[in-house]
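Lesson 9: reading folded outputs for more than one chain in a single document. The general rule is that every protein is listed as its sequence immediately followed by its structure tokens, and records are never interleaved. Here is the first one.
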Amino acid sequence: MSSYQSEVVAAIEKGNEAFKQFKEKNEARVADLESKIEDLENKSARANRPGFGLPTQSSAGKPETKAWADAFIRKGQTPTQGPEEKALAWSTNSGADGGYAVPKLIDQRVDAVAVQQGAMLGLVRTVDSYTSDFHEVVQTARNANSWVGETAARPATNTGGFVDIKPPMGELYANPQITQQLLDDAGFDIENYVVTRVGEEFGAAIETGILTGNGVNQPNGILSGTFAATDDSTRAFGQLQYVPTGVAGDWAASNKADILLSLVYKLKAVYRKTACWLMHPQVMQDILGFKDSQGRYLIQTGLVQGEPPTLFGYPIFESEMMPTKAANSLSVLFGDFKRAYVFVNRTPTRMLRDALTNKPYVGFYTTRRVAGAVTNSEAVKALKFSAS
């Protein structure tokens, strides 16, 4: 081989070695970038996942999620890893007695179903309390003020009074019982069944408590308060105002919708900005037939699917827990419910799996401590089917 050929071969080998080193270095860089991207994606997924690593509702239908739920619901086992092989933080009572704290996933699903079942929980103001001694301090009168000249004296003005409201607290519970044999052999999603049923029961109970609760181991309901026909300027603090239809148990014989318009303007403008209607479906059915002088229906349906219908421009919500139309019934509410009522969450929903207390049944003992009370009696008005 000539010296020239030797130089060419050496140059080619040198080039191949340089390319090999470049390829290895580049592949290492790509692998490192892919690892970082995967790590970022995992962190993002965990940040958006309720319960920090527990399966979301969107993953509930995945086979791995079903297997994870099956281990807990059917067999009472305590999983150490989630459906995506992420480490879970579990809080347990004694494993020996069969009671395992259900993960936040199910807590949140119970709450979600509860909200769907009751309109009021989505309308009122909700706060979380870390003590059972929750108080709401409310001003009962406005501060006095006066116009003055440049050099006029400025004596002290009266300061509005305050009242301390302590919403009564109670514990809500459900304890469905399922045989171990059914848990072993059921051919349907028993986890979803238990969660849905408990959520429905809690939703109905909370709705009832907010509307008609008597304050004994449960919230004080809006309709359980004291009502008077007098206006805000003369009515005692804490009393709610009602507007009578003029007929016991029915609407007026003519111009039936006029009383609804009167109810709207009994509410101060500051509350009308975010006000809405709440009524029993039976009453809603009556109002659906009301027309104006041009023959147009007063209730307007939403232009977008899922939007509530409106009456005089204010959204309408229905509740089966509102009274039906009857003599002296308060079957329609109108107001700003977030300003009118506070609902207090003392503890989140908790579910304990109990396989020993009532053998051969497995109990899913679920509790939630809540409180509630009217805090602003001016912010909501009621329509009363009464003569006066």
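And here is the second record, again sequence then tokens.
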Amino acid sequence: MTAKGTLAATRRRETARATAVFVFPAFFFIVVFIAYPIVSSLQLSLTEWSGFAKVAPVFVGFQNWRALLRDSIFWRAFGNNIRIVVLSILIQIPIGMALGFLLDSGGKKLNASKIAYFIPNLMSSVAIGLLFRYALDPYFGIIRYISGLFGGGILDLLGHPSRAMYAVIGVICWQYIPFYMVYFLAGYSSMSTDVYEAAIIDGASRGQYFWRIVLPLLKPTVKNACVLSLVGSLKYFDLNYVMTSGGPTYSAGGVVYGATELMATYMYKHAFKTNQMGYGAVVGMGLFIIVTTISAVTLFLMNRKEETL
């Protein structure tokens, strides 16, 4: 082997070692915190177990999976998640985009507004849930006070089955609109000022500049924002559980449903409230499969559409 070949082989070995050094920590954490829990949950979903260490899990095969497919409460919870997905994308992203554009247009004089608008996203979801649970109280909350100012009576948003889900979605949007505002603000800031100056010289108005130039350039950012909102909405848990715990309940066809029940809250109740760890695991696996499938299909369709353009 020539000296040149030996040097190339040495470089490849060194590159392989360096790659292994940097990849191993990431691979280790992926295995420990992602792969192992998935495999463990899959094994647990094939058992019936109360969750107590002194009681051994009983293997029941696919009994839990068959029960999940027939579980109308789970599928109703899935429908609630889909409502959050649709309304979150339709509300959060357009408003976040508009606020980002206005703040970017205002320059440094609106820096204080940027900080003020972002405060809701800095708060804990649990704190926000508690705040709005009391704010929306039909007897002592601020909504009751505002309703009284206009001559109205008691307005129970969280206690009414037809209103509770939309009240929760409104609070979710209030919390996450600032995130998308900053997200799009970063996209606007990355655009060259030369593009704006050229558009103004050509006689474009601010509205024409946004719709004809900015929006097409922001398509990748909008796509990523939609995927983030989609995935987050499908696995939402904390704020909803603090505000309503999946309630209020109502009866339909002899089955008691939770008006704001989500797949994640349904999983939590089975696993930690009723000590049905096996069924809780199968609900969690169902949530995992649904989120993964919908996200993968969405990304595939978006990338395919880009390739055909």
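What the second record shows: Residues 3-44 form the longest helix (42 residues).
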